[in-house]
Amino acid sequence: MQTISVPGDKSISHRALMLAPLAHGTSRITGCAPGADVASTAEAMKSLGVEIREVGDSGLEIDGPVRLVSPAAPIDCGNSGTTARLLTGLIAGQPITATLDGDESLRRRPMGRVVEPLRAAGAAIEERGEPGRLPLAVSGGGLRAIRYELPVAGAQLKSALLFAGLGGSVPVAVFEPGHSRDHTERMLLAMGAPLKMEEVGNGRRLRLDLPERPLRPLSLHVPGDFSSAAFWIALAVLGGCGSGARLTGVGLNPGRTGFLRVLKAMGARIHTTSAGESAGEPVGDIEAGPLEVKGLKLPAEWMPELLDEIPIIACIASRAVGITVIRGASELRLKESDRIATLCSNMSALGVKCVELDDGMEIVGSGAPRSGRVRTEGDHRIAMAFAILGTLPGNDIEIDDRACVDVSYPGFWERLAEI
Ligand code: S3P
Question: Does the predicted TM-score (pTM) go above 0.85?
Answer without folding.
Answer: yes
